[in-house]
Amino acid sequence: MAVVVQKYGGSSVADVARLRQVADRVMRTRRQGHDVAVVVSAMGGTTDELLAMAKQVSPNPERRELDMLLSAGERISMALLSMAIRELGGDAISFTGSQSGIITNDRHVDARIIEVRPFRVQDALAQGRIAVIAGFQGVSYRKEVTTLGRGGSDTTAVAMAAALDAEYCEICSDVDGVYSADPRVVTTARRIGTLSYEETQELAEAGAKVLNAQAVEFAKEKGIAIYARATSGPLPGPDPSSDGTVVRKHPPRMPGAVAGVASERDLLVLESDAAPADLLALLDERGVSGKQLHVASGATHLAVSRDNLHDEARLRDGLAARFGQHARLVDGLAAVSAIGAGINATYANVRAGTGALTAAGILPGGLATSSFRITWLVPRERTDEAVRILHRTFIEASPPRLP
Predict the structure, then answer these.
(1) Is the pLDDT of residue 312 over 90?
(2) Which CATH number covers residue 136?
(3) Domain membership of residue 231 as a residue range
(4) Domain finish residue from 194, 223, 248
(5) CA-to-CA distance for 66 and 314, rounded, in angstroms?
(6) Same-domain pairing of 13 and 149
(7) In the listed set 205, 223, 248, which residue is the last one of a domain according to the structure?
(8) Coil/strand/helix, residue 154
(9) pTM tops 0.90
(10) β-pair type (194-196, 3-8)
(11) Is 402 within the bounds of a domain?
């Protein structure tokens, strides 16, 4: 039988009642004749609650202990879902990240998967059992519990799908696919039927919440198709893009077309005229990973996401102690990005986006580009307005262009 990996997160695992609905969907997939491995996130709000408790105990909790704490959320979900599947007549067994063979590097809070050894999962599937796996976590080569950062359950699912040679990996949440913008911000946002791996990865890096960037990286390396779907929706049919989003190698779009607009609101920008090598050495000591690094004429600019920065006060103190006035963290900015294959073949899109923002009185505080992305730094309080302006400019103003 073909192996299918499913991941459930968001409000679809918010409480016990919804976990029962997930169990029913897993059983329907099993009855279609598939071997099923299920990756599950923590129940709604659990990770944030655990993190809040840690902050009450310590303003700068040690990262190893954070991982020990935060990994408990997914373990609760996996055990409850396994019980719910058994109540429906299924034969399920739950595994932690380490038990399922997720091997990571030695970073805490934002570890990266370096290898998957799914021997116990394979044995369970060979016995006809449904494997329920805790997402977001693994074990380092030093036998330490690690977590994979925000959205890490996606990474667990796709990495497991690659290791199991799965037919596809289904990412199920409370939304029915990837949209051209956050529908809560842009009411006219459109569901995107198909995306390339690169476009999806850039959307994730730019702040879109549906899929995780490292997960897409795994899928691209192994050629695994990702189906992003709603938990409440039907099981995938002959055309999974008809009621979800399919991530694959080539999307049916002309190069230069904007696929979506994403934003990241909680951003810090590190500005420094200190020696770049010394500055980056401090960041590595503190375990700080940046998003976009620019070094020119002795000046360093680095965007840092607050989501994975759990010791901001300690970082500020370290920068002040070592570099004084030569390094500072700038707050109050957000990043708004337009994403699409070949988006920067000319400067037309850069000019159009900058012009639209400026005309609305939003003066970009910075600009960065790549082959698939244009990012503007804007005042945080105008983030949503900037997203709506760029969506109108690039997506609503013209119909989709097909090759």
Answers:
(1) no
(2) 3.40.1160.10
(3) 3-248
(4) 248
(5) 16
(6) yes
(7) 248
(8) helix
(9) no
(10) unpaired
(11) no
Task: Collapse the DSSP code of 7 into the 3-class scheme (helix H, G, I; strand E, B; otherwise coil) and give the result.
Answer: strand
Spatial distance between the Cα atoms of 342 and 350, rounded to a whole number of angstroms: 12
Q: What's the rounded Cα separation, in Å, for the pair 131 and 142?
A: 25
What distances in angstroms separate CA 217 from CA 180, 193, 213, 225, 247, one per listed residue? 20, 19, 6, 12, 11
pLDDT, tens digit, for every residue of 354-399? Answer: 999 999 999 998 899 988 999 999 999 999 999 999 999 999 986 5
Residues in the chain: 403
- For the residues 74-83, what does the mean pLDDT come to? 97
Beta-strand runs (E) in 101-140: 102-104, 113-116, 130-134, 137-140
| Nearest alpha carbon to residue 403 among 337, 342, 338 | 342
* CB burial readout 375-385, b (16+ within 10 A) else e: bbbbeeebbbb
Three-point CA angle 278, 280, 286, nearest 5°:
110
Residue 255 lies in a domain: no
pLDDT tens string 271-280: 898 888 888 8
Q: Minimal CA–CA distance to 220: which of 155, 264, 266, 311?
A: 155
Closest CA to 263 of 362, 153, 148, 124: 362
* pLDDT at site 214: 82
Nearest Cα neighbor of 341 from 374, 371, 376, 368 is 371
pLDDT digits (tens, 9 = 90+) for 216-263: 888 888 889 999 999 998 999 888 989 999 998 766 666 678 999 999
The pLDDT mean for the chain works out to 91
Predicted confidence at residue 402, as pLDDT, reads 46
Distance CA 107, CA 287 (A): 8
Cβ contacts of residue 140 below 8 Å, gap of 6+? 103, 104, 105, 106, 111, 146
Contact 192, 340 (CB under 8 A): no
**Mean pLDDT, range 43-67, rounded to an integer:** 91
CA distance 257 to 244: 20
